[in-house]
Amino acid sequence: MFRILRKSLKTGVVTGQHPAAPQPADTAPHETCEKATPFTTSLTIREVDTGSCNACEMEMNALANPIYDAEQFGIHLAASPRHADALVVTGPVTVNMERALKDVYRHTPDPKLVIALGDCAINCGVFKGSYAVTGPVERHVPVDLRIPGCPPRPAEILIALANLRRR
Amino acid sequence: MPDRPSIEQQIRLAFPTLVPVPSPVPDLLQYRIGHAHLTELTSYLHNKIGGRLALLFAVDQRPLADRYEIQYLFALDSRQPWVLLTLELRGQDRLFPSITPSVHAAHWYEREIRDQYGLIPQGHPDLRRLVRHEHWPKGTHPLKKEFPWNQVLGRQQGEYRFRHIEGEGVFEVPVGPIHAGIIEPGHFRFSVAGEPILQLEVRHFWKHRGVEKLFEQQPLAAALPLAERISGDNTIGHGLAYCQAVESLLQVAVPRRARYLRSFLLELERLYNHLGDVGAICNDTAYALAHAHCSRIKEHVMQMSDRLTGSRFLRGALCIGGVTFDVTEPGLESIVKELNRVERDFSELEAIILANASLTDRLETTGVLTERVAWDHGVVGVVGRASGLDQDVRRDRPFAAYDEVPVHVALYRYGDVRARVRVRMDEIHESLRLIRDIARKIPPGALVAEPRHVPKPGNWAVSAVEGWRGEILYFVIAGSDGQIHRCKVRDPSFVNWPAIQWAVTGNIIPDFPLINKSFNLSYAGNDL
Question: Which residue of A has its CA nearest to B206?
């Protein structure tokens, strides 16, 4: 018990101990921010992997660690698309995942946002053109926000989400 | 190599007619065999002299010669040569004998060959589709040379038939492909009676991106970015395995300093992944404190990687012939100091975790993978070492700087979740020790070496790297004009996934996430 307390006291508060990310070159268009107005104080995200290499997933998971602590900005990660305000889609859409992506989109209640996370979701990255890849996310569902990077750093994801939800 | 004659002699004694063909690769015995000998010889290698089926794949040789080849790569004991068996299918021959009835590890490989090439393993007990899901049109086999790499096919109707268990009170629980957590897609079908799991069937390959076909469109020198993105958390493991295969084709002698830095990168990758895993396993028992601390330490190491190489996942740090980054002596010193602080931090946490009785209660005797089942599946890496399989490429076939920086292999026998946690904890300390050792011994010198040779079409190389999950294998065959003719990738997940089906039997469904996390296999690396 004392060992645990000592550890916590010794560690202190680590939130925010990360290098600042630069402001993205292109900010979200006006209509996207308009669409995001209901979610300015609270945004629940469902992450969908349609064929990524797992690096984008790791960075999404990092948002929940004590250093980035996305909960402090009202960002929650939901277990089901039925609870979500936004879908974060990673990876090129593979032939085998195409139907699952469309199903998830259908099951997410309106109003909803779709965020393409990482280069693969935006333009298929190194997997472009393959027989097993049907195209970027926007070919299958409408995309509201693109966060480029291979993978984007957690701090970059947080900035992009903050810009989107700015009043 | 004093051991070399012994394996060769043993095979000659058992099969007097077989003579190895001269092999371009050192430490490898290659035999060209006919259909008649195949099952007998593979069964002998696997069951009599303890050979692990490390790789089984097909090659379409057709631009060069009118035939298919099927390659069987066996790994024998530490520091013994590989044994490569090559079976040729000439002309219209599309059948080859299945070895699955005697060598169980061949199960998925042979189904994969059938999907990718349309070659039929005769006598295979289960010929359902594996990679190509049922909606792929009949008769389309993407790795055949005539199949266009960029052709997306239409869909057909089809249904995958799961294995059913029938009886009173038996019901099925389908899970996936999209899961509750932020993880990759895969489908799990449980048959349960009450709480205990009677059977689990894993249905994967949702993320199949056609990686092996994409390799064939690229020159040898340019495909590293693709290899780095096969399994994101395994950038260095896959990148290094690819680099080594290409370097042995181009006959590049990697400078000593670069080899040390490569080992350093590989240990750094192992470190952040194991730290994350220990926390995530604790999290699956709702032990949030350990998870929070572990993810904090992991983040610390990833930020350090970012400062060092410009990528949190160490991407772009490797290149063919060496590495793209360097560290100064004071730089290295401060890294070691920082990692020493990480180790103290983790040791304190480790003591807290291991003293937690309710955690131990959840981990012990959960998800037991017996040594026998692990061996039959050819299981590698952390999972194998937790079940008593004493194998580690870093020690058995040293690469990078591991001949000069020897590894102590962590080994546990119980095969439960706790053993897998303990292997990871030991390897965290071992990685930190190795990095200190590397920092002490690293020589000055060049970082990159130039290629000295242009490979002829048909030249091949095999490369093994102990990534943090386990043994990663690359088999690269050169084509004309420096292109890749075939690049077979084998992530450790591909052999470990079928074994998880046995580890969960008899456990309860709520323990499945815990068992799954303790294996922590890659979906992307498996599906390719």
Answer: A96
Q: Which of A56, A127, A134 sits opposite B214 (nearest CB)?
A: A127
One-letter amino acid at B77 equals: D
Number of other CB atoms surrounding residue B443 within 10 Å: 11
pLDDT for position A18: 87
Residue B458's Cβ-count burial label (10 Å; 0-12, 13-18, 19+) is: middle
Interface contact flag, B232 A96, Cβ < 8 Å: no
CA distance A106 to chain B (A): 14
pLDDT at B481: 86
In A, minimum Cα distance to B228 occurs at A53
Q: Which residue in B6, B9, B30 sits closest to B20, CA to CA?
A: B30
Furthest C-alpha separation in chain A: 58
pLDDT value of residue B495: 94
Is the CA virtual torsion B308, B310, B316, B320 positive or negative? negative
pLDDT of residue B454: 84
| A40–chain B Cβ distance below 8 A for any pair | no
Compare CB distances from A57 to B147, B152, B184 and report the shortest one's residue.
Answer: B184
CA distances from B266 to B126, B305, B341, B360 (A): 37, 11, 20, 30
Over its C-alpha atoms, chain B yields an Rg (Å, rounded) of 23
Q: Are B85 and B60 in contact (CB under 8 A)?
A: no
* Test the B interface: residue of A13, A53, A80 with most B CBs within 10 Å: A53
Return the SS3 of B170. strand
The answer to whether A86 and A46 have CB atoms below 8 angstroms apart is yes
User: Best of A90, A96, A119 to disrupt the B interface by mutation (most B CBs within 10 Å)?
Assistant: A96
Task: Select the residue from A130, A134, A156, A158 to test the B interface by mutation, using most B Cβ atoms within 10 A.
Answer: A130
CB contact under 8 A, B207 and A49: yes
Q: A130 and B293: CB-CB below 8 Å?
A: no
Residue B452: predicted pLDDT: 82
Q: How far apart are CA A88 and CA B390, in angstroms?
A: 41
Closest CA to B415 of B385, B454, B394: B385
Q: What per-residue confidence (pLDDT) applies to A167?
A: 63
CA distances for A12 relative to B300, B349, B413, angstroms: 15, 15, 38
CB contact under 8 A, A54 and B184: yes
Q: Chain B partners of A54 at a C-beta cutoff of 8 Å?
A: 184, 231-233, 522-524
Q: What is the pLDDT of residue B1?
A: 44
Peptide bond into B174 cis (omega under 30): no
Residues of chain A with pLDDT under 50: none
Residues of chain B with pLDDT under 70: 1-5
Beta strands B95-97 and B82-90, pairing class:
unpaired
Could you tell me if A13 lies within 8 Å of chain B, comparing CB atoms? no
Phi and psi angles of residue B135, each rounded to the nearest 5 degrees, phi first: -80, -5
Q: Give, as one character, the DSSP assignment of residue A24.
A: P
pLDDT at residue B466, as a whole number: 94
Residues with Cβ within 8 Å of residue B417, at least 6 apart in sequence: B281, B362, B363, B364, B366, B367, B514, B515, B518
Question: Can you give the pTM of this predicted structure?
Answer: 0.94
